[in-house]
Predict the structure.
Amino acid sequence: MFRNQMPRYEVLSEEAMSTLDGGWRRLVSEIGVEFMDVRARDLFAAAGQKVDDNTVFLDPDFVLDQVAKAPREFDLQARNPEHSVHIGGDAMAFGAVYGPPFVREGDVRRDGTMDDFRNFARLAQSFAALDSAGGVVTEPNDTPLDSRHLDMTYALQTLTDKAYMGNVVSGVNARDTIAMTEILFGSRAAIEETPALISLINCNSPLRWDDRMLEAQFEYSAANQPVVLTPFILMGAMSPVTVPAALVQQMAEALSGIALSQLIRPGCPVVFGSFLSNIDMQSGSPTFGTPESGIGLLCTGQIARHFNLPFRTGGGLTSSQVPDAQAGYEALMTLLPTFLAGANFVMHSAGWLEGGLVAGYEKFVIDAQLVEMLQHEFTPLEIDAASLAFDAHEEVGHGGHFLGAMHTMERFRTCFYRPFLSSSENYERWMRGGAKDTAARATEIYRKRLEEYEPPPLDDAIREELEAYVVRRRAELGD
């Protein structure tokens, strides 16, 4: 897991923060937030908040009192303790793309399958820069809808030994995910003491938490498993077109969702979520890697720290249909502010294409390369007498060459980061090697990774118990 010890890039003045603070307070108290689950509305009503039909009008100070109950940092255990992660502080955890129904493999764009899901899980296991395969790395459209969450969870549990995400389609799916996690880690008590699942709860922006997401939130928060309360905001569609208005709405939505989790179980872990970009005002299509999303990301980090909350944002986002130059620069436009803001939980770190509709094999490799390079770039320099290399100057003298100096010879294997994807060959050698561009090299890398993949060890008794649970529940669900 990466620790970002660089200074945070903060862009909001005290006056700006105060203005934003007044904005979210007006939204929750005057416009209110819809909660499409009677249990949520009952909890708020019992706590003294005004409820009118599905809308809850919140006292901002009450919201802050609830938010203050959430831990500032927490641990998330993986079945391999070496891959457990810390959420909050200077820690950054990176997970793969989440949710695409389609897959791109070379020139082919097609429906995602369970085999694709397993392959992306294997790739996530193979890249050290990634802490998690995530959750729905791609939608396995060749499996039954009502039971595919069982197959996805089983794959994440057996093909990786890293942290994974819970299924949030319904309360039933959430309960199954929790039950399978109890099997993997030994008991309910074991995962309540140290959480083993982190799950995405999206707001139906603007200002509505829908029933399915709330069902899952109730299950996970009651079990003390962290949820990432995330407004899904595309400026111009799900929020007004200005960045400040989007930030205020994001604050109102995220904080109201966090308050609910604390009513469900005081002290349960939560993450201040952000998914903030804009639409193309000509076509209406979502756009990613935009300057507006970058500045919004930087602001979100500062806002989350203002509320003493860990936060999720960023990733390798792009609107590009293929893993081309646009995909690369848009992903960097999102990943760089992700590091500058010090995001604690980063979804969509690898594989995102076509506005999130597609999980791309080549893009997965390109993004893993970007994340690894940025992790290296954001590692503070060690400056001491040895690194100043005065002895090398004494050896080489004026007008000399350092390539053969003793200082260089002692360090040349590790002195500079060596990317696994980039090419620095001269033109003639590059041509003799087939003149492969970045996408072609990425194809070779992901295929080699899959060929060399070895599953992490898992106790046979646990595997059998998980398999039995999947078989039983699939039958009970009618599949």
Summary: The radius of gyration is 23 Å. The domain at 2-9+67-377 is CATH 3.20.20.480 (TIM Barrel). The mean pLDDT is 97.
